[in-house]
Every structure is written in structure tokens, then in C-alpha cells.
Amino acid sequence: MGDYHFVYKDLEGASTQWDDIQRKLGNLPPKPPAFKPPAFTPAPDESSAPKDKSWIDNKTEDELEDLQDDPDLDDDRFLEDYRKKRLAEMREAAKVAKFGSVIPITGSDFVREVSQAPSDVWVVVILYKDGIPECTLLMRCLEELATKYPATKFVKIISTDCIPNYPDRNLPTLLVYNNGAVKANHVGIHSFGRRCTPEGVALVLCNSDPVLNDGLSGSDPSSKAVIDGVRRSFLEKVVKAHEDDDDGFSSD
Fold first, then answer.
1. pTM
2. What letter does residue 105 receive in the DSSP assignment?
3. Cβ distance 205 to 188 under 8 Å?
């Protein structure tokens, strides 16, 4: 015959006078608190949220475009102007962010990626081959410049993919394009001075044209402004290196 065992429980949180006495004597653990459901919080109603600058800041580019016909903004000139400003900033940021690295291309990509690049974009092409130390050194400089100047397009292509039978003695070679035309070419590592540094390469590239563009100095910065920025960056780098040397000396 089965052993049936029933356990009778009172309502959760309820207690008897006997239990209360036993708890005072320490024979029972403290009574658990009665269950209380969390307070009801209605879901936020976006339509009732205040429409201010922070409301605009939280919108995506597509959402800002959709707000163009919002009747509430028609009555608020400040918000409408701020919406247009934010939209322009987001589009400019997207434009700047489309580069930022040295992009590998092949011979079949050259016309599309270089010759047909937009007229407001400068393109720096490095012809190289793996295993040549001078190519490796210049490539490192270009990788740093590509990060610093994301509105300038940097591409790399194996020399013989670009120009059949191109002699290795001319490597590395830099070609500078704008508006579909070659604006400059630099053959060999010696073109960039005794020590090939990112700052030295930047100064050579911007010697006559504003090739490097960080996207923050306007759509067509002057060559002088770019060179001044490169020199300032170089001085900051030298000062930082000097300070690091001083810190290392003092720690000894």
C-alpha cells in the first residue's frame, strides 16, 4: 500500500502565535518577508517624450530624414535647424570613415578604385612587392598616415599587377592621383629622405598639393595648412618621446 504523506502549508508569509514564540526563542529561523509583486511601470511612450536637442541626438540618420515632414518641427525652427545640422554632421562623419587603412587592390580594380575615385578624394597608390625591406618600411608609414588622414584614400598593389615588367629596383613607388590624373610620383625609398618616417612621407606628399585630409579641416584644405598640421604633429611626437625618455631615466 502506498505511503501517502500530505504537507499542509499556510498562506505564504502567514504565521501562527506558536511560530512567533518559537522564533523569539530562536527555535525557528526568521520569517521570510511576504511576496510583493514589483510596482507596475508602463512602457515609455515615445510620442509623449519632450522634443529637444537630446531627442534629436538619439535619432539615427534614417530617423532624422523621416522627421523632415514632422509637423511638430515645422513649428519649432530651432529643432528643425538642429535636425539639419545633426544630419549634415552624420553624413560628413560617414564620408570620413569610409577609408582609414591601406586598401589592397588588383590590376582589374585600378580604374574603379583609383582613376574613377571622386574628384574631391586624393588617392595615394603604393607599388610594392613582398620581401623587399624598403617596401615594408614605407608601407608602415602609409598605414599610420591612413589612420591619421581617413579622408585620403590609400591603396596598395603589387607592382607587376599594375605595370607589367615593372623593375624591382624602382620599388617602392608612390603614385598620387586626383580627379583621374597622376599629380605626382615618387620612385624609391630615397624620395622620402635619409630616414623614412610617417612625418617625412607626409611632408613630401603635401609639398605642392593638399593630398592628406583628416576630414576635419574642410573639404579642400590648403597645402600649407596640411603641412603645418604635419609639423605640429611631428613636434608633439618628439616632445612625447623626450618625456618618455626622461620618465625612463628617472625610474632608474
1. 0.57
2. -
3. no
